[in-house]
Amino acid sequence: MSTPTPTPISAAAPAAARPATYEDLPLFALDTDGPTPTTATVPIPTHEDLFALDGPELTAVLDFLTTAQRDQLAGPWPTRWLYPPGPGDPPRGVSVCAGCGGGCAGLRLVLGVQADMVCIEWNKNAAATSTAAGCTVVQRDIKTLDPRHPALRWTRRVMCTMPCTDWTRAGLGAGRDAQNLEILLDAIDQVAAHMGNVWVDGCELCTHDDPDDCDPDVCDGRMIEPSGIPIAELWSLVDDMTADTAGLMLAPVIWILGLRSIGAPVEAIVIEQSSALPETVQEYIQAELVTAGCVSVHWQTLDAADFGSASNRRRAIMSAHWYRHLGPVTVPGITTNAALALGWPPQTRINTRGERRTSGGNVFALDRTIPAVTGKIRGWYCQDTGRRFTIPEVCALVGLPATHPVTGSRTSQCQQLGDIFSPLVAAAVWGTLLGLPWPVMLRTYLAQIHPTVHGRGDPAAILFNPDRTHTTPAVTDADIARLFATGTYPRFRIQLQPAAP
Q: Other C-beta atoms within 10 Å of 408: how many?
């Protein structure tokens, strides 16, 4: 795959020259004795000014500003992100098109990871759900935000979970149309070039016979300089696509390469998308990451049903780490019977389409892992009683606690849960990237939300349940022997019971 130099979209002004040192910014010199006739009228620094500073100098300049000025500079990002992270601060991350926050739930609820993650989501109800669940949310259209912002220069993690309608049968597969694919793939090439992700081999440009005559700026291999083109013009590259959600697959390239172009130490990346995403799109994104220096990139098709979800959800998942060589995510093969998880009778049959008859059927048994949950679950009902699923039950079917604070109308709540990035799969993917013992954590979590199914399924789930949020039976000698034989040395409490008379 070729990576051409960018074709100009319109005349874009070159990036402003950045002062090399703090002394080049006399306007922002500190006055420890308070405002003077000079400092009282000092304008706030620009984004380019902030990029020229780091460490104590940056902190000093920001501290000199008012709260309103700092908020203005940071917007729409958290003001604290203008400052360098301090020792012990959790890693910063962005979740693009975050939906109702399933990916963050995998990190926070399943893995117990402390992360300073900002979720970007335009839908107000999904944004409200994420906020209520504890996320920091920016409710904006992703196309209006530029990753080349000084508040994002310490971002270490990126998660992208764009809508997938145009890749699926529900969207008539419009994204797979040959012309739409051609536009998207060309846009990926162009964005990568505008972000400076093209390697120029210096030996091909060098005309000097004597190495001493070489100019390191011309004769040595290097990446090209980013063009500094406005974000709106990058998104205009997919304007001609007739599949809007398919065009959003440009977002990972814009955000990952955009963050790297400003020096952000991006190290762990997750992309979640429809399993119908064409392999060519996967390959183009992977090639750009490898070109940029990412050492480990894997695409897999994973089904949440293999990670303990009571419902199927097959998705194309990309996991990448910039510095660590990792293999693909291991599939644990944990299954959950939906009827047992919900406490419904095993013989229950669910009707999804009323009296309609289709080749795929409209009734299924609940005593198994059920078909994928979609927004239409709002109308599914028990064939015998007419009872519909409650929102807490829909949460349980997709791997969330029944108490998860889903916001909005019933229709909106069901749509959010139908579109979710499975927190169970998210936990496995992030656990692999972060080197955590996620299988034990996953089983513990499943034992907590589905105690009737997984409370006894694996002794590790019993022994590693520090909160004791569910009732567990006694651990046998065989359970303990098996754990120690595999090198697992748990810490647990033993409560002696009086002997039966």
A: 18
Write out the two tokens for 220: 């040595």
Question: Closest Cα to residue 220, out of 239, 234, 200?
Answer: 200
**Out of 206-215, 248-257, 260-269, 372-381, least confident range:** 206-215
63/70 Cα distance (integer angstroms): 9
Query: What pLDDT band is residue 169 in, cutting at 50, 70 and 90?
Result: confident
Residues 8/219, Cβ–Cβ less than 8 Å: no
pLDDT in tens, 119-158: 999 999 999 999 999 999 999 999 999 999 999 999 999 9
Please report, for residues 65, 107, 321, 376, 386, the alpha-carbon distance to residue 85 in angstroms, rounded to integers and kept in the order given.
19, 20, 21, 43, 54
Residue 168 has pLDDT above 60, yes or no: yes
For the entire predicted model, the pTM comes to: 0.82
Cβ–Cβ under 8 Å, residues 452 and 444:
no
Backbone angles phi, psi at 134, to 5 degrees: 110, 5
3-state helix, strand, coil in the chain (%, to 5): 40, 10, 45
Give residues with Cβ within 8 angstroms of 187, minimum separation 6.
Answer: 237, 238, 247, 250
Residue 401: C-alpha distances to residues 371, 391, 420, 449, 463 (Å): 19, 11, 14, 6, 21
| C-alpha span between 101 and 95 (Å, rounded) | 9
SS (H, E, C) 285-349: HHHHHHHHCCCEEEEEEEEHHHECCCECCEEEEEEEECCCCCCCCCCCCECCCHHHHHCCCCCCE
- Specify burial of residue 489 (Cβ count, 10 A radius: 0-12, 13-18, 19+): exposed
Q: How far apart are CA 157 and CA 57, in angstroms?
A: 26
- Measure the CA–CA gap between 162 and 359, rounded to whole angstroms: 30
Determine the straight-line distance between the first and last CA of the chain, rounded to whole angstroms: 78
In tens, the pLDDT along 416-425 reads 999 999 999 9
Please write down the HEC assignment for all residues of 211-244.
Answer: HHHCCHHHHCCEECCCCCCCHHHHHHHHCCCCCH
> Residue 244: what pLDDT?
86
Report the b/e string of 223-243 with b at 16+ CB within 10 A. ebebbebebeebbebbeebeb
